[in-house]
Amino acid sequence: MSLKQQASGGAEVNEKMAALVSNANAIRAIASAVEGTLGPKGLDTMLVDKFGEVVITNDGVTILTMMEANHPAARMLINIARAQQEEIGDGTTTATVLAGALVGAGVEQVSRGVPVSRVIEGLRAGVRAGIEAISRRARAVDHISDSVIQQVAMIAGRGHEDIAELVVRAAGMVGSEKLLDRSFRLADTVVAEEGADNQVFKGVIIGKERMNRQMPVELENVPVLVIDDSLEPEEIEDEALSTEAGFARYMELQAQFRQNIQKLVDMKVGLVLVDRGVNESAEEMLTDAGAMVVQRVLTTDLRKAADHTGARMIKRNGLKKDPGQLAAYLGRAGRVYNDEKLEQVWIQDGGGKSMATVLVGAATTEVVGERERIAKDAAAAVQAVIRGGVVPGGGSVELAAAGDVERIRKDMRGMAVYGVDCVVEALKRPMAQIAGNAGFNPLEKLGDVTAAQSESGNESLAVDCDTGEIMDMFEAGVVDPALVKTYALKAAGEIAEAILRIDTIIKKREDKDSRELDK
User: Fold this and answer.
1) Residues 345-367: what's their mean pLDDT?
2) Most buried among 67, 264, 269, 485, using CB within 10 Å?
3) Share of the chain above pLDDT 70, in %
């Protein structure tokens, strides 16, 4: 082969590697942005926008979703983190760190000449083995009263004992059956408010106030009506109003509307929640009757209120029903309270499903958001534990799983073993990062823990981030939800495979250019 042919072949290889290296660098940059927050000694990140607004947080998904990221590979990783947050509610930092390690190790193998297809083959097998190894080590948690629940809430709540206590109490109110329901998210029950007192109560919070100050501040044991519509008469087009028949129809609708409102008054409906606006005459009649009306309520709040009170949501046309039929749509609340300070309406002791609300107080506006994020993480972790059990934390379970993954090398053929090696290295990364964030030598501590686990047969050993000594994570109460770990590894494997498979990056044609070419 001539020198010219060799140079041409080398240039082609470099061009093919360019896309992979570019994507890998983007993934590595994103991982670097959050890996410093991992573990009990992880530090915070400051995010600043163009107006100088500042957010200081330790929350991985907040950092990822708020940071500026223009590279397509970086946005892919951020989307994976969002998926982790949506599915589990916690573990986005772990998923990002694992993805960064997998992609980095994969690129290194490809640069050494290992075909991408073989790396991916081994990577898939390694991720499957890793997930199985972690799942095998999970300890089931059958009841909310298990003391491990408090430990999980403390760790996910970054050591905030008051928040952990609130979340555990809320979980107890909701019950295991509700926590196992995949459509229910305990994290959605968390609300943080400046100046509020920490508390948990049976009920829901509506983020709106009563319509006017003449309405009662507090009601007890009242029927509740939830209107998924506006509370206004049917409309007549302007053109129709100019005719005698149209005007007569308008007056008829107005009279019918007042009759409908009078039905609510006669039925002694105490609380009316409305999706959209409320007509002035309806407001006046209901105010005179001593009812509380809240308009323009968020759809999510409407649904929560309906579930908790046992009300069936109704459209405005449904108010034409006779009182007997209308009564079937009413719910009931033991107490309704308008908090003027927090600008909220509290609905407690409903006649429907048991609902809990976690109200987290904060001293200043600056810390409200972070307190809420911490509480939501703790709530998500508690729910994940009920669904999938716990594993020892501190990176110990990943390190133990790495040993299991390494053992499948003998069953792999050819160069696929190098893909398995990528997973082994990635599984060691969380413990190394936690140790590094605590100020210790990552390689030294990783070696010490690996040897200690092997000699003792105790796979729960990891590094005490205060002393640097080796300790049992289960005995120390350092535990994590198993689902957080398995889903993080699964997500990291998916993004790593997607990145490694990209051979070429091509800029898309603009829509305008597309239209011109189609002409």
Assistant:
1) 85
2) 485
3) 92
22-51 pLDDT per residue, tens: 888 888 888 888 888 888 888 777 878 777
Phi and psi, residue 334, nearest 5°: -70, -30
Q: Does 1.10.560.10 match the CATH number of domain 12-139+390-500?
A: yes
485-498: per-residue pLDDT in tens?
999 999 899 988 98
Asked if residue 518 lies in contact with residue 124, where contact means CB atoms within 8 angstroms, the answer is: no
Cβ atoms of residues 228 and 325 within 8 Å: no
Neighbours of 196 (CB within 10 A): 17
Q: What is the mean pLDDT of residues 235-257?
A: 75
Which tokens sit at 277? Answer: 């606006």
DSSP 320-353: GS-HHHHGGG-EEEEEEEEETTTTEEEEEEESSS
Return the closest-CA partner of residue 340 out of 223, 225, 215.
215
Tokens describing residue 24 = 């890998």
Whole-angstrom Cα distance, residue 422 to residue 106? 6
Amino acid making up residue 354: S
What is each CA distance from 492 to 104, 135, 452, in whole angstroms? Answer: 12, 16, 28
Question: Could you give the CA distance from residue 396 to residue 392 in angstroms, rounded to a whole number?
Answer: 6
- In contact, 169 and 200? CB cutoff 8 Å: yes
pLDDT at 8: 40
Q: Which residues contact 398 (CB under 8 A, 6 or more apart)?
A: 130, 134, 427, 428, 429, 430, 431, 485
Sign of the C-alpha dihedral, residues 427, 428, 431, 433? Answer: negative
pTM of the model: 0.76
Q: Are 370 and 57 in contact (CB under 8 A)?
A: yes
pLDDT per residue as tens digits for the range 171-197: 988 888 888 888 888 888 888 888 788
User: Residues 205-233: what's their mean pLDDT?
Assistant: 93
Q: Which pair of structure tokens corresponds to residue 512?
A: 């305008």
The pLDDT of residue 242? 66
Return the CATH number of the domain spanning residue range 199-362: 3.50.7.10
CA distance 120 to 287: 67
Residue 242, φ and ψ in degrees, nearest 5: -75, -10
Residue by residue, DSSP assigns 245-286 as HHHHHHHHHHHHHHHHHHHHHHTT--EEEESS-B-HHHHHHH
Tell me how far apart the alpha carbons of residues 404 and 410 are, in angstroms, rounded to a whole number: 12
Q: Which residues pair with 443 in a beta bridge?
A: none
The pair of three-digit structure tokens given for residue 364, joined into one six-digit string: 């200043």
| Domain ranges (residues) in the chain | 12-139+390-500, 199-362
Q: Distance between the two ends of the chain, CA-based, in angstroms?
A: 48
**Band of pLDDT at residue 14, cut at 50, 70 and 90:** low
Alpha helices in 67-157 (DSSP H): 72-87, 92-111, 116-136, 147-156
CB 385 within 8 A of CB 367: no
- Structure-block tokens of residue 422: 């990528």
Radius of gyration of the chain (CA): 29
